[in-house]
Amino acid sequence: MNAMDTVKKILDESFIGTMATVDNNKPYSRYMTFVNDGLSLYTPTSNQTDKVEDLEDNPYTHILIGYEGEGFGDAYVEYAGRVSISSDEQIKKKIWNNQIKKWFDGPEDPKLVILKIEPEAIRLMNKSGEPPQDISL
Fold this sequence. Notes:
The protein is an alpha+beta fold. Helices cover about 20% and strands about 45% of the residues.
């Protein structure tokens, strides 16, 4: 399996990752749930969170996704991207799942926004002890 296929497989099978934003020139990371469509990532959040404020000031993020905790050789993805904040009902319905029910009343909840992340750089890490592999976009 080539690096791009491995990245796609990781994004298709991984739903939890860390997402960093910047506030006052300092990075802040938090665990988020992700859904992908190809190489684009989507994650739900409240429009009343610090991360939304951070992203309005600086729309760039860095995400780590796919690490399974197996140790050395456990492949994961480093993902740098630009975020857009969407209230689009179609996107909300598209990514709605039972996990989101814990925090929101439904896809029409006015607090629910979707962060759409478009990749600017993707790197496959730790694949069987191989050096990092940059994915051409």
